Amino acid sequence: MPLFTDLKYLKTVLETALLTAQEPLSASMLKRLFTEDVKVALINGILEEIQQDWRGRGVELIKLSSGWRFRARAEFTPYLSRLNPEKPPRYSRAVMETLAIIAYKQPVTRGDVEAIRGVTVSTSVVQTLLERGWIEVIGHKDVPGRPGLYATTRKFLDDLGFHSLRDLPPLADLGNLVVPDAGPVNASGDTPDSEVPLADEAEKLVD
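^ thats the sequence. predicted structure below, dont judge the formating
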């Protein structure tokens, strides 16, 4: 078995693992590839080298919230989409507004969301976001009834291609990232709307 004093070979192992992975891989997860004691700091350094190696190519290595992964560069998406013409899930106005409020004001209760939206948030809307893995309950507010506090997840950031909440775009752009084009929804719980309404909710979310 090769010794991992051979950093070039170690780099090839890491690159192979990332190219064949279905999900993002953290440095700690990649460390498990080796029986030797390969330091996480060394792995991170090599990952940054790999990232540089792939710059300017059709595929790039990016660091997301839950780890590193290869993906096609955005400018090639129109070409690749022709190989897989299935349309992505569509979400209603209520779902998108609720997601936006949680993303930009977290942690929030369902009551907080309702106060900002000015309407009741149906259980199906919250359930849609929970099932998608974009939000989770991270605690309970210390008030009567102890309502759950909702926050976005690492999967939410991964799906949008971000490393942290600091990378979130202006509120008006969030809908364009999550819902790429106009069309009928198939995941809602409320009456669908033809437009993603994040822009007109922006003023409500700014303190």
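The first helix runs from residue 7 to 20.
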